[in-house]
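Table S7 (text form). Paired inputs.
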Amino acid sequence: MKRIFSLFLTLILLTAALPALAVGADVRANLPDDIRAFFSTSAFNGYIIDELATEIFENTAGGSFAFVAACKGNQHILYGFELKDGKWVYWLKNAGILLPSDKAYILANCKGQIDNETEQVYQNDSLQIILLSDTGDYYVHSQVFTVNEYGQWHLKSIFSHLLAEKTVTNAWVEKDRILYYQEELAKSTTVWGVTETNLRYFSIAAFPPTVKDARNTLTTPPKISADSDLSPILINFTGGQKFPVYTGPGPQYARAGGGKASVSTNDWIQVFGEENGYILIQYDITADQMRFGYITADALPQNASIPPLNLAHEEARLTRATYLTDDPLNSQSLLLMLPAERQGVKWLGQMGEWVYVEVESDSKTFRGFVPASSITYTTGLNSYSATLDTDFYSATASIQVQSGTQLTAQIIITYPLNYFYDATREPDGYQLYANNVPVLAQTTTQQTALPDGRRQSIFSITAVLPANASLLGLCPIYNSIQKADETIMIYLAK
């Protein structure tokens, strides 16, 4: 009994003499206390932050930023921090930006340097993410992200021996194109199209490494006419995600693509508005085909502000046999055949030569587009639009009049990038006039922001018009004062 007790006591003493196990990442770099504390929790056990795997940008465009590449095995994750009120605040985690590697990444600022391959100069503060060769005397992989005046970091270049077999990826990235440099040809090849460049959402796996890949995958969002009932917003979704797509707002609607339609967030996505927790989008499938459809609003980036869909939902009639498509602007591929004089068609809105409709077929509900020449109203719905540009904003008004008296209108005011908030320059409401006589109307207002930093004010108006209304006026109100010289005028068809 005494021997057992002595052994137990010895184990206690030995255990007390052992040092406590470290909690958090093994931080070998010189980091601010706030950032070091962030990595000190058990969630970062086993991670290493190498001496050269950090970079801090103080008082740069849009603020002060710090970046850290944390490594665990061959996995690397990029973290970002922003200095706010004297404290470094976490704002970025991107696991898709760094390739797996058994070597540590190096972070650096290459502002003012000339890119050796493209001879382009990095004008702004630029985060360079580097992997060195085994000998350490040249890059095997490099990505550069530059910051703009809004504190947004966007991809500017990629040089890599690792992205494609038997070739080197050497690309300079612009907003609507990628320039691929081929050293052996001593020239560059431009591929037009949009790819995700925002550091927050960028995924290296989604970037086309070669000219061939880019030509097969890149497309440019189509321009939609100003008089369309659908107004697009280009949203930067978080890369590397995939969502099912339905023809209408919810799984109760049919799903195209043989029941397998889905969208990847690695390419451009236009958003048109929200209905019942789903957002209407347009996206590209291939270089030759796009699709309109709905995905859950949960797919939106955090804090994204999307206006509601203002669709008509009015009875309509097909005047001839036609077809339904979810790609009116490109392939116009067949989704459903529709016979003439078909009943139960809902007119939702118009987009140029196409009308957005809802129909039933084989116990399924579809939304899509039919040629405008094949459909007519059965309840007297008319649509109108007008625009107005002032020194401080651009305004677009979309109006629908049902049965000659029921009015719904939306006015979208967009302010320029260099605009600073000034209440004296911004309408806070509108007064509706019919034949120069004031009309009682209900107005709601919403503020939203575009991905490029511009701000919008959206005014939604409902009213009952007098039966003889032929001229509408939408007069802006500034602090209870109407400004007649900025009135939007619209003549109603008779």
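Next pair, protein 2 of 2.
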Amino acid sequence: MPNIIEITDFGALQLDVYARLSEGQLLNRHEPEKGMFIAESPKVIERALDAGCVPVSILVEKRHIEGEGKEIIRRCGDIPVYTAEFDVLTQLTGFKLTRGMLCAMQRPKRKTVSEVCAGVRRIAVLENIMNPTNVGAIFRSAAALNMDGILLTPASSNPLYRRSIRVSMGTVFQIPWAFLEKENGIRELHNMGFTTVAMALKEDSVRIDSPQLMREEKLAIVLGTEGDGLAADTIAECDYTVRIPMAYGVDSLNVAAASAVAFWQLGRF
């Protein structure tokens, strides 16, 4: 039976995870095994549950208990299900809930780079991409366009930040990912047999539709930070520097848009 709890006290400690804890506090770097994340909307929560993530509690608009949220509540067993009308929840959280439902979940054990890269042919590498929206959008494109996994440098935004999860539509739970121990890890990728592709606007670059790229057995597509792009050292270490041809004098694309183009072209094999 679901444990439905009507919200009567905004200051209840059990609601801190939804209303008052920062992303850093949810991440809990000092005790990562106790870290949590927030999944928002029924579709995203379903994908997290399908991936084996463990729910802690639910915050749901009252009308969804017997509506869109009914099956999710059933799947989650007897965990607390906090509920109220739409206006009350908006006042509590400070924003309008997407599709009226949030779920606090335990952070899964992180995968290693070796686990993500074992037996795969196409991966993306995110170097210092710090905007959670861009990270989420890249994950969604990676899932749709044949990437097998994603690696992130330590300075990149965590894929389990609430906004990243929401923008990704839950694909952060479908695409395997891991953090590199070093800032770029290009040498590590070479040791695992990957040909590395630096997405950068350089004079000595090759076009993204170059036949030689398509013939490569294992590709790691390296994307740089929003402002400065890839570090010069990273570009120098990569096997190819690749550009997306532009028109109308446009010099570059947003990193999320560029990732979609790169994944579409280089993910076909």
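The two ends are 48 Å apart (CA to CA).
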